[in-house]
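Repro:
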Amino acid sequence: MEQFLLDIARDAMMTIIKVSAPILLIGLTVGLIVSIFQATTQVQEQSLHFVPKIIAMLVSMLLLGSWMLTVIKEFTLRMYEGMIRFIGM
């Protein structure tokens, strides 16, 4: 039973990482590019740093949203199947 619960926790963590990693990596990449641009041009405007990152992350959510929902739906179905097996124990 403990192994079953550990498997559920591991599956939940892997699903969280799988869903959030693409958006976080895109935000990190855009932030790094904007920071390099600001350092080379010596433009120190604070809003210039956040606006491109927010836009890139919103566009990535629009493009990857259906995939993310599919991954979350599959995880939810696995949890329901796990509950049925757990109750049947």
